[in-house]
Amino acid sequence: MTGQDDQLLLPRVAQGEPGSVEACLDRFGGLVWSLARRMCPTRIEAEDAVQEIFVEVWRTAGRYDSSIASEATFIAMIARRRLIDRQRRAGRRPSENALVDESTPGTVTPDRSADGVLLDEDAALARSAIAQLSEEQQRVLQLAFYFGQSHEKISASTGLPLGTVKTHARRGLIKVREILRAERKDTARRNGSPATAQEGGV
Amino acid sequence: MSGGIHTIPEDVLDRIVETIAAGHGGQGLSEHRQYLDGLGAADALDELEAAAAATSLAFGAADGGPYDLPDTLRQRCLRAAVEEGLTGGPIRDTADQTVSSVSAPAVERAPLRFQPPVDQRVQRSPGLARLGWLAAAACLVIAAAAWWPSTGTAAGSDAAELRQTLIASADDLVRWDWAAWDDEYAGTGGDVVWSESRQEGYMVLAGLPANDPSESQYQLWVVESSRGVPLETEPVDGGVFDIPAGSTEVVVPIRAALRAEGVAAFAVTREAPGGVVVSDQSRRVVIAAPPAIDG
Question: A176 vs B54: CB contact, 8 Å cut-off?
């Protein structure tokens, strides 16, 4: 999606190109390790999760579609599924208690990246979309997609009516999708590629 | 080409959104995919899940940068790639040695070096993190003897009986007293017994304040040594435990996540529920170590 497909790693991994697996670890190891550290209760579990996630990333690298997401987002998507699944299997409810530290952001602002770290392009776009939402909407998005909480649990913990939680989560996620989609269309146009996106917003 | 997300009924979208939030993407969305195919809006599923992942990253879930992938874990992943046949050729570890024919995952046991987050590296002087664990253990001998005159038993506790059995039967038993690691816990007493050969041990903790598990938990750390010299590695996670309200003394079995060898000290910190992978040691509780590591 960046017009730099020649720099993409996952297609190289899918083709079994020597060195691509190591490069993938070098580029995205910190991202996955950070996610695992935050969502696993112990170091051992975090290490197991990282290995599990990367094996799945490498196995499914051929399914990566740069017109849908950045590589970092694709990998974060797999990591998120795996980590939440591990929590579920261990009998722990995904919650904001898991390895949360003081760096957990509250309200998102467009000019403040998490811990001052340079964000992936998709994440930066998502951040700008989230920043346009109310604090209440942001909180629902954070609980739903950062902490993986159910609508019912969010409703219980925030005191918001269930219907409001559902609306915030739905509209917020669609807002992020719209911005990512628009960026993808612009990039495709700049690169002279046929855009895959044709629809408008909701 | 696409019917668009606006063709999807809101109640269906709500279920999709919650499915994604719960980490049930991919196969978990298959029933919705068939339905959305009929609407010409199947692309929306992948896009929404990607948006969820990007949202998670945006909230700081992947502050990738402060936390580098540890070398030992990187090597472990590379070995897994080899074993799974996922590499296109020989791969090399960080020491530039070919690891394409690995038979045993020896690196799994290798302890990780203590790598505090970047903000800690900046704010703390070099070596301070290490000194947090090791210097405290080394200085402990000064105070240890005075804290706890004797330990009683944890009435009605299986752990107390197992502890007594261990004390009576282990040839390599060590028994160290707890000392407060912070003034807040000056009233805490008890001891820890440990048998390395059996990898079995028990903590007796008396006077430790009760905790609310939904707010914080106590976490045990095992500091290892080599020939009596504490290692400059992260301590081994010994698990989390709680002190129930109203209890004056508890016996807690030690369950180290890894085999602990050459134990130099046991330390307890107070952490977020579930414990942490790497403690910032901001809430130190008690520590126990033998006189031998002094100096």
Answer: yes
